[in-house]
Amino acid sequence: MPDPAPTALPVDEARHWSRLMQMAELGAIPGPSPEDRGVNRPCLSPLDREARRLLIRWAGTVGLTVSIDEIGNLFLRHEGTDPSAAPVLSGSHMDSQPNGGRFDGIWGVLAAFEAVQAIRDAGIATRRPIEVVAWTNEEGGRFAPGCMGSMAWAGIEPPSAWDAVTDTAGTTFRQALDEHLAAEADLPRRALGPTGGPSGRAPHAYVEAHIEQGPLLEAEGLDIGVVSGIQGSRWFTVEISGKTDHAGTAPLRLRQDAVQDMLRAITALNALTHDPADVLRFTVGKVEVLPNSSNTVADTARFSVDLRHPDATVLMARGDAIAGVVQAAVRHCRATVRERFHALPTTFDPRVPEAVERAAASLGLRARRLASGAFHDAQFVGSVCPSGMIFVPSRAGISHHPAEYTSSAQLAAGTRALAATLLDLAQS
Ligand SMILES: [Zn+2]
């Protein structure tokens, strides 16, 4: 008897979709139609815990072993015939953006779960263990920056690095994490880091399934994106400090108007980041003005800068120039530039994208290689073990919004590709 072909893995589309929709109820945002309902599930919130408990209940019925680490990363382990072999790791995150969709992150966790269940349902014993992971705080929506769980796991920062980070209610990350760990005190603990699992070995490979969050796959009529790497990001906060004045009485020549200097700074940054090839991404997405009154000259203006590029040299050079360009642009106020987050571009070890490509081809799925424009946990996990990602199409490229949508059939295709990839890696 030949080994069963990957097409034989019994991924159950209806079960998979039903689980996704049950998760979408936890933090549901009502929408104009059933296809436009969103999710608001902040990390380490009671809703986040409810979602984790639901997943843990399902894991119990399937027979996976649960453990968590000191930053709340959740692991569900399918044992291998060689329990000491380096495990194959697959998952994503369960938190959402405040006005987020039903698929970003959570699909990658449930896809890994369904893939493992399909392998078990097929009666296949894998040589390597397979672990499903849900990383803590990928989105950075409640506590910035994102990807804290995977960064701490990969040893890039200790969990204590974010102790003082606060959410808008003034709760610190440390308080939220301690509360969360107390609520999950009944769950077995594992040591933080790549060798913290029962195998005591760093993962053999990591595969993250995720919606594309961009328009390419849909536009090209494809099923699968084989992700070759992730562009780098640098985030800054620029603060312009001037002097408040009455809008009716203060002559313009005597003002230190923070808004006017902010406009000069942003205009100069537009020139700095101009890229005729349209590869560089420069965004000012958040602006705060104080006192934010229509008849008062602002004394403070604060804005965010999000800079991304797949080439580390360009990312470093343009990012390093930001402070100088801002200082040269402001005319009447003082400016400070602070870097809040920094992730270098990642090129995935070719072994994982090649395994994804083989899996997609064996299932007759239409696939192409692409780089991820958004950052993901795989960026940090990739510094520890060979990693890669599987994208499925996002309707109109929309994400971080209730209109985010991928059909049940498209998700099931991605999960079949993931299952075949995990099986391939777990038998090697
Ligand atoms: Zn995500």
Q: What is the general shape?
A: globular
Number of distinct beta strands: 18
Rounded to an integer in angstroms, the radius of gyration calculated over CA atoms is: 23 Å
Unreliable stretches (pLDDT < 50, length at least 5) are 1-6
User: Would you identify the CATH H-level superfamily of the largest domain?
Assistant: Zn peptidases
CATH architecture of the largest domain: 3-Layer(aba) Sandwich
Question: Residue share in helices?
Answer: 25-40%
Head-to-tail CA distance between termini: 20 Å
For the biggest sheet, the summary is: 9 strands, mixed
At the third CATH level, what is the topology name of the largest domain?
Answer: Aminopeptidase
Bound molecules: zinc ion
How many domains make up the 3D coordinates? 2
Sequence of secondary-structure elements: HEEHEEEHEHHEHEEEHEEEEHEEHEHEH
Structural class, by secondary structure, is alpha+beta
Please report the first level of CATH classification, the CATH class of the largest domain: Alpha Beta
Question: What integer is the average pLDDT?
Answer: 96
- How many separate helices? 11
